[in-house]
Amino acid sequence: MIKNTHDNDLSARERILLTAHDLFYADGVRATGIDRIIKQAKVTKATFYRHFPSKNDLIIAFLNYRHERWMNWFTESIQRHGHRVDALIPTLLEWFSSEQYRGCVFINSVGELGEVIPEIIKISQQHKLDMTKHIESLLDGFANKVGTANALALAIDGAIICSQIDQDPDRAIEGLKVIVEALCIRR
Q1: Model confidence, pTM
Q2: How sure is the predictor about 185, in pLDDT bands with cuts at 50, 70 and 90?
Q3: Cβ proximity of 184 and 104 under 8 Å
Q4: Measured at the alpha carbon of residue 45, what is the angle toward residues 61 and 47, in degrees to the nearest 5?
Q5: Ranges for the HTH tetR-type domain (predicted)?
Q6: Are 4 and 75 spatial neighbours (Cβ–Cβ below 8 Å)?
Q7: CA-to-CA distance for 105 and 67, rounded, in angstroms?
């Protein structure tokens, strides 16, 4: 799925952001301290704070970065699997089966910090809207593209949570297949 390479040629800002990306996703935003990010990114505190005046600034940058990376991966994977609505299944199976899978960072972040940092909710809403718009692009010829895309996005979010809780993608993927077939294939 989405992989990072921590190259010494990256700028300090890029190293901080990539390190935060990996740690925030793996361990959660609250559980990951700035000192740990600084140490793993191999930067000084002064360098860190020059690029990100607060942890909240880093969280916002991380979510925007994750959105861009995830959407690029999602659209590329959908294309690779045939650019049809049923391509959602192998795309999500690929993500859910990855060793790094820890659910949706946007859902997780809203749950962790949405009330404390309202910008997280806005970024997460935009992420879900962009995902839904891409799903809608797969529904040419459907009478209710918007409603169907919204229903599929909701089903995907449910599958994300199911797969995260079960720590096994099978039940989530099987349920999602039934929903995709009911909404799209057998229409």
Answers
A1: 0.89
A2: low
A3: no
A4: 65
A5: 10-70
A6: no
A7: 9
| 108-114 own/partner pairs: CB under 8 Å, 24+ apart | 108/28, 108/29, 109/29, 109/59, 109/63, 112/28, 112/29, 112/30, 113/29, 113/30, 113/59
Q: Provide the token pair at 153.
A: 């996005």
Question: CA 136, 142, 143, 147: dihedral to nearest 10 degrees?
Answer: -30
Q: Residue 111's CB: how many other CB atoms inside 10 A?
A: 12
Distance CA 158, CA 1 (A): 20
- Residue 3: predicted pLDDT: 46
SS (H, E, C) the chain: CCCCCCCCCCCHHHHHHHHHHHHHHHHCCCCCCHHHHHHHHCCCHHHHHHHCCCHHHHHHHHHHHHHHHHHHHHHHHHHHCCCCHHHHHHHHHHHHCCCCCCCCHHHHHHHHHCCCCHHHHHHHHHHHHHHHHHHHHCCCCCCCHHHHHHHHHHHHHHHHHHHHHHCCCHHHHHHHHHHHHHHHHCC
In single-letter form, the type of residue at position 128 comes to: K
Position 4 pLDDT exceeds 80: no
**Tokens found for residue 126:** 């935009």
Question: Could you read off the pLDDT of 26-77 as tens digits, one per residue?
Answer: 999 999 999 999 999 999 999 999 999 999 999 999 999 999 999 999 999 9
